[in-house]
Write a structure and sequence with these properties.
By secondary structure, the protein is α/β, with parallel strands linked by helices. The protein has 13 helices and eight strands. The radius of gyration is 31 Å and the shape is elongated. It starts with a helix and ends with a helix. The relative contact order is 0.07.
């Protein structure tokens, strides 16, 4: 290296504590900003350029830099997220948190170079108040990050010319990954829209239009459809209701042949009086003052099984589905079946 590069290198050595302080401050700001906005990132990392890496850079183009402050990537940070549209959300966050050097920042995604998919990051050159030195912040998707790492590993950046056959295959893969990146974001947007429409249908009571699945059952449960039955049951002993998750009953309703939320709603209306009567016999001679919020839906399912000829075996299968398979389920099924038959359910 020439004397000018040696001077820059000496400045780098003397300013390493400054860069370490900058690194800690940048990471703190980014972590707090991401958490505050509820953004999901897969990677949030930073590094200070090693001396040997800086030496290599100065040996190649040291005359380009007047001082260390002209080298924008001594401190580098990277944020990786799943979806392309999240990159834009995080970009907006970065623009609010830091001073951006727009002249030296670049959105490489706009270059549309097929074989550069993994390097199509959004690169910001940022500054922290009170510091002379800038830092580089890269934003990219998980697929872009993986591609850049793999491409680097196979020697694409090694300077060795790669035969056209391999370049063609690399370019094809880059195109496929770029398509996948866009498609993942599109699918997420469509699923989000679907969930909004389902939620609206549930709110409007159009349950026959909503297929029964994990998402739709979750929306149905948000409307608390079993609360009225639970309150009737709790009133038997003036009991408190302890909230528990009810999502496990999805597989039960599916096993009953329910295809839509309307099917679940009709089952509830048809059997809720019998479910209440069963609870009255279960609790009437006890002093229980706390009941589970699952008691209503569980009794609905018990009554359905018995009314449709499932018998003791059907109740065992029901309790296995609700509680997991264990030997106690047979005992519970036997007691429950005998009680139900004595009531002529």
């Amino acid at each position: 290296m020439d004397l000018h590069s040696e001077i820059i290198l000496e400045e780098y050595r003397s300013q390493l504590p400054v860069f370490e302080k900058m690194q800690a401050e940048v990471m703190r700001i980014l972590q707090e900003a991401v958490a505050r906005r509820g953004l999901h990132v897969t990677t949030l990392e930073s590094r200070i350029k090693k001396e040997d890496s800086l030496c290599g850079k100065l040996a190649l183009k040291g005359s380009k830099y007047h001082s260390l402050s002209d080298i924008t990537d001594i401190l580098g940070a990277r944020i990786v997220t799943f979806y392309t549209d999240d990159v834009d959300r995080i970009a907006s966050m970065v623009e609010q948190e830091f001073d951006i050097d727009w002249q030296n920042s670049v959105d490489k995604r706009m270059l549309h170079q097929l074989d550069r998919f993994g390097y199509n990051s959004l690169h910001y050159i940022c500054r922290l108040p009170g510091y002379v030195y800038p830092f580089e912040l890269q934003l990219r998707t998980t697929l872009q990050h993986a591609w850049a790492s793999i491409n680097h590993d196979i020697g694409y950046k090694s300077g060795v010319e790669i035969p056209r056959e391999y370049l063609r295959r690399i370019n094809r893969l880059a195109g496929i990954l770029e398509l996948a990146d866009d498609e993942f974001s599109r699918i997420r947007a469509e699923i989000t829209d679907y969930r909004r429409r389902v939620h609206q249908l549930v709110q409007n009571g159009k349950l026959d239009d909503v297929l029964l699945d994990g998402d739709t059952f979750g929306s149905y449960l948000q409307a608390r459809p079993f609360d009225a039955l639970n309150k009737r049951i709790a009133a038997i002993n003036q009991a408190e209701i302890e909230e528990v998750p009810l999502t496990r009953y999805l597989r039960v309703f599916k096993a009953f042949g329910c295809k839509t939320l309307g099917d679940v709603q009709r089952l509830k209306h048809q059997y809720e009086d019998a479910a209440y009567r069963l609870a009255r016999h279960q609790l009437g001679n006890t002093d229980l003052d706390i009941i589970s919020s699952a008691v209503g839906v569980q009794n609905l399912c018990i009554v359905y099984v018995i009314a449709n000829g499932g018998g003791k075996i059907g109740l065992v299968h029901l309790f296995d589905a609700i509680n997991g398979h264990n030997t106690q389920n047979e005992e519970i099924a036997d007691v429950t079946y005998n009680l139900a038959k004595s009531m002529q359910l």
